[in-house]
Q: What sequence folds into this?
């Protein structure tokens, strides 16, 4: 935001619109993080965590960090939920 | 301690924490304001010095390449640790990869899921390979590319059966690929030392102009090695977890 003032960027999106996008995503992130903590059922919690991962990716994209966006998308939205789901499946299953 | 006493202690501690937190926040630099000298300096010199237009990759694999080697071996060690912890133990046996849980009805994989997984597996491999091999020109890198590659193999599991996943990702081959990836990164850095240059400095030549796929010398090579290592490590970890979930059972004692 303020750091961008005076810097010439080739993007055609007005800075005000970027501000609105960034604030919106930040609010959604806060809501998503609260949702992940407040949901008490583990499988649903993992799904919420995955959605939260997507939100984080959008946040990083809106702050012009495409590298981190890719990492957040692959790890936060896909890899971590997969590992957690597999662990839940292992823990949940009764012995025979 | 009574309930009222607890509440007073909490209020006292909570107010103190809030006060210190706000005090700390008020001392932060303004939003989006970066006071450090390194960012502007890197932006000035990176493209001319490395011929990499993906400046983040230049920072990751050259300017702070030494740290990235360490991070690389963190993942390598983590994958090794998972393989050791989740190995077959005495008193455990294999069983079929079919869900036998008694307390629930297991729905068959719907054809919609199979279809989506099949459709995305191929593009996933292409995109992952592209991300890992084009870090010098694009905002991408071996790490992201490797995880996307690994996700394509998870899609194969979703579309088919665990046995298909095992057939397309043999553990022996993955071990070799992971070793080559992690070792290749270190070897690329050490080669510079053998050529009497600083560790991790470029010895391949920068290529004709910034932004070409063949530009940036060792940055492109290292990113590719990282992609191999990360993809193999992730497929190994997911494979071990799937095996634990689906195959290995404690023998009834």
A:
């Amino acid at each position: 935001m303020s750091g961008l003032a005076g810097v010439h960027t080739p993007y055609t999106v007005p800075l005000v619109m970027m501000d609105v996008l960034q604030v919106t995503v930040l609010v959604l992130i806060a809501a998503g993080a609260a949702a992940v903590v407040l949901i008490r059922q583990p499988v649903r919690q993992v799904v919420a965590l995955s959605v939260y991962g997507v939100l984080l990716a959008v946040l990083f994209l809106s702050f012009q960090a495409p590298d981190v966006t890719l990492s957040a998308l692959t790890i936060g939205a896909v890899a971590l939920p997969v590992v957690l789901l597999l662990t839940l499946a292992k823990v949940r299953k009764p012995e025979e | 301690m009574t309930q009222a006493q607890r509440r007073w202690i909490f209020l006292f501690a909570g107010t103190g924490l809030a006060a210190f937190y706000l005090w700390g926040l008020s001392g932060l630099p303004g939003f989006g304001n970066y006071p450090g000298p390194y960012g502007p300096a890197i932006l000035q010199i990176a493209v001319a010095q490395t011929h990499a237009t993906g400046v983040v990759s230049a920072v990751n694999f050259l300017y702070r390449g030494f740290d990235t080697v360490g991070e690389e071996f963190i993942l390598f060690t983590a994958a090794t640790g998972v393989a050791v912890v989740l190995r077959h133990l005495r008193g455990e046996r294999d069983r079929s990869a079919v869900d036998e849980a008694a307390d629930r009805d297991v729905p068959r994989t719907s054809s919609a899921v199979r279809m989506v997984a099949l459709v995305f597996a191929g593009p996933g491999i292409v995109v992952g390979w592209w991300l890992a091999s084009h870090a010098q020109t694009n905002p991408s890198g071996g790490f992201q590319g490797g995880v996307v590659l690994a996700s394509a193999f998870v899609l194969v599991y979703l579309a088919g059966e665990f046995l298909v996943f095992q057939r397309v990702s043999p553990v022996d081959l993955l071990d070799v690929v992971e070793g080559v990836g992690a070792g290749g990164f270190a070897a690329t850095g050490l080669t510079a030392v053998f050529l009497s240059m600083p560790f991790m400095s470029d010895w391949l030549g920068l290529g004709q102009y910034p932004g070409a796929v063949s530009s940036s010398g060792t940055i492109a090579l290292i990113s590719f090695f990282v992609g191999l290592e990360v993809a193999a490590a992730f497929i190994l970890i997911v494979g071990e977890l799937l095996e634990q979930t689906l195959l290995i059972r404690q023998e009834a004692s």
Remarks:
- Residues 12-89 of chain A form one domain.
